[in-house]
Structure of STAS domain-containing protein:
Amino acid sequence: MEGRPSTGVPILRLGDVLVTGMLNEIDDKAALAFTDELTERIAAESTRGVLIDVSRLEIIDSFVARTLMELTTMARLLGARVIVAGMRPPVAITLVELGIELVGVETALDAERGMTALGWRQVPQPPEGARHDATR
């Protein structure tokens, strides 16, 4: 990915899952660069799943919706499952009003539920005092 401009959107790796998000400030050029970077990472890192958190998106247009659908299709072709998590009600309403269907895009109410759908389980941590008692 040398020579490519950075999108400024962090892509974190948790085991075989990539976690990232979309921000309101993303323009068409940055969205395309983000798609390129994410698909390169999926292929290079043998990624099994991708969580895209859209909870910070206050609006969505047809270009961003199409980008999400294309990204999902590309990821599936590369062997990864994509879940879009955290869509706000106004964004969902806007998509319906515009007649935009996110065909093939799997969604989750929030990032935690999306990670669970990708096979992640939250392991409860023992209470602080319990760790000290066990070492005595």
About this structure: The mean pLDDT is 85. The helical segments are 28-44, 62-77, 89-97, 111-117, 128-134. Residues 47 and 129 are 38 Å apart (CA to CA). The domain at 11-113 is CATH 3.30.750.24 (Transcription Regulator spoIIAA).
